[in-house]
């Protein structure tokens, strides 16, 4: 374990980290004069040294024994076994779905109002992540400004309410329509772009929408946003605050379920195959008779409309919206849900969305370290399980010829 | 023309410039129904450029491309988008294999059915009887085509896990799924061993009969070209330098010079 090479290497890593964190941890301005705290920096250096030792030791040991023995790999294998079970064994999957569904159905009866709103938000993230999953996971178009569509949806409800007094149920389809238009507007100029360039343009699009919302204050309310957005009525009946919170919870739950069903159906269809082909190889898909322009437009439209619906629900849930809810952090968060869950996988992305949306609530004690934990999680995932928690299940087909053979 | 059949592909003085470089210069070609035509020439002669111009990936600078099914009127294909050309009935494979590598073998061929099916987004969501029927037909047809090229055992595997020769055959099956009347094969035997090359040759001959295909292939394996093709076109520096039957090409001094260098002239 203690070879000279490893000791030197780990020592250097420790020193490097000390230099790196020194300005943040080691200097504090007290009464306009910098004071230095070397002890903290040293502690960090020592911890990094130990971790670096363990890290390289781990890799050496398990290179000899075969990587499959490592702890991380074991966890990864457990994940694979789990995903096998969920995606291939139909009865287990059905049981699991039923249990989850029942649990979510009765949840608001047992939890506080606050918890209920947290869960509604988590369901909205499921919708968002699955919507982005169509664009990024299935069609392979890296979009970094997805929160913009979310904002378009939310503001559609907010503004239509403010200026025309339209209600939730009228605004829901309108918002879907308008976000699809926004998706197409973005898709049109980026048809010829791919990879990094596409990412940059979509990142820009996200910022443009956010800045527009901030700066067009006469129309959108600027940084103050829009407040007093009504919650949806229950067949014309005014609900009590508790009642409407629970009502919103169920709306979000069902919206998420509908999203899951529809996205699953889209993926397993002719259109879904074309989208996957687009992800794999644009030139080959063109040569196979796929109209790239149409398919890319379809990907953007199908992806963005979910963000529109989620946006309306979000505005109704909060009854208050402002541009700070739709920053790049939001897009990045949704993207990490897709990547962590497994690009293109519905089960994985749903799970990741729930976990990442609920994690901050249950790890409140560590809230200061939230981003640190998140970063660590991302790094370890990318090293040990780049395919995501639950990679997409291969779809099953049943060629008639094969069935006939089996029968004979 | 040695027969009274009408051509299904006519290329008239096709040229392509890339900036100042003339990659294709005045190339003529015609292909008759059920003919196997080979396009040969040294590396960089413009063979793949020719393919790309005809299949719509490049727009030719000058010249015309006309094509049409046997017995039908020819249609001008200049400037038509690649996916429309595929829909029209021209399919191709690629020199450097371009499969959808993380999709299964069956799914690869199913993608090829895209232009011949029409289920849209709404049908995918509601799954009516038309959708289900069409999908089952797509699956069955894809499986059949895999049988034709001998890959039915591998239908569940990911395309990238297939051995090299099998990947080439999968590309052919995928191209056939688009119901073409003219198939372009870009170096189908590249990287194959002699045994596989022989099998490929038999496959190509069988597919021609079965699907009533005309085939244009680019190939460097001279044994295969000579024994398979009805006619051969030879290109060098973007121009057509010779064409004729394999026997004529074998003895054409210009061709020998192009392949072996000037000193061979004597």
Question: How does this structure look, described?
Answer:
The complex is a heterodimer of chains A (408) and B (266). Chain A has two domains: 4-69; 88-384, ABC transporter involved in vitamin B12 uptake, BtuC. Chain A is 74% helix and 3% strand. Chain A has 17 helices and four strands. Chain A has helices spanning 4-26, 38-64, 71-88, 90-110, 113-138, 147-164, 168-187, 195-215, 217-220, 241-267, 270-280, 282-287, 292-318, 328-341, 346-362, 370-384, 400-407; strands at residues 27-30, 33-36, 226-227, 320-321. Chain A has a two-stranded antiparallel sheet with strand order 1-2. In chain A, strands 3-4 form a two-stranded antiparallel sheet. With 266 residues, chain B is an alpha/beta fold. Chain B folds into two domains: 1-89 and 180-266, Rossmann fold, CATH 3.40.50; 104-175, no CATH class. Chain B is 38% helix and 22% strand.
- Low-confidence blocks of residues of chain A: none
Using the 3D structure, state the CATH architecture of the largest domain in chain B: 3-Layer(aba) Sandwich
Q: Helix and strand succession of chain A?
A: HEEHHHHHHHHEHHHHEHHHH
CATH topology of the largest domain in chain B: Rossmann fold
What is the tally of beta strands of chain A? 4
Mean of the pLDDT scores of chain B?
90
